[in-house]
Known about the structure:
Elements: E1 11-12, E2 15-16, H1 17-26, E3 34-38, E4 56-60, H2 65-78, E5 86-89, H3 99-109, E6 115-121, E7 128-129, E8 135-137, E9 145-154, H4 155-168, H5 175-181, E10 187-190, H6 201-208
Parallel strand pairs: 3-4, 6-10
Antiparallel strand pairs: 1-2, 5-9, 6-9, 7-8
Amino acid sequence: MQADRPKQYLLWGERTLIEHTLDRFLDQPGLRGLVVSLSATDDWWPALACANDSRITRAAGGRERADSVLNGLAALRELGAADNDWVLVHDAARPNLAETDLQRLLHTLADDPVGGLLAVPVRDTLKQVGSDGRVTATPDRALFWQAYTPQMFRLGALQQALTGALASGATITDEASAMEWAGQAPLLVEGRADNIKVTRPEDLEWLAHRPA
């Protein structure tokens, strides 16, 4: 991002990205606990008003995403969460999550035996390339979706999957991939393509033209 701070603390309007993101969840009637996994050296968080919100618990961030999520799950257990409770994992830098998408995810997965995630069908042509950078194949894009967040699974199952996958040395890029490693098939719930993860300066510029 070429920024002077972690990207979740960049401003969208008058508030940081992480504040907008947290707002998407704080007013949900079924919320029993909310955990933010942060680096021990994070000096930006204490300056935010939400750092003093009693509904938010801080957990230690880890070396990888999976480590941070596991720390967050452990914190939820300390708050009284049980194996069968639903947990949603969301990227702090996805502040444009639509309320309709969140409700669709919650409703669709309410009775699902596995859980799932918001995702968007791939729209552009995909190319498979070799080590020389040349195209080797054009896969059928109808078979591919982009994985977004929130990703929603039962606490116990997710904790077990993440722990087992990390111990095995598997490559885990999101919670769904850990569940897949454990032999489960997460359900894709189609969401809006504008639930973007702020990764590049142009992403923040795009947000700037939308009402915060």
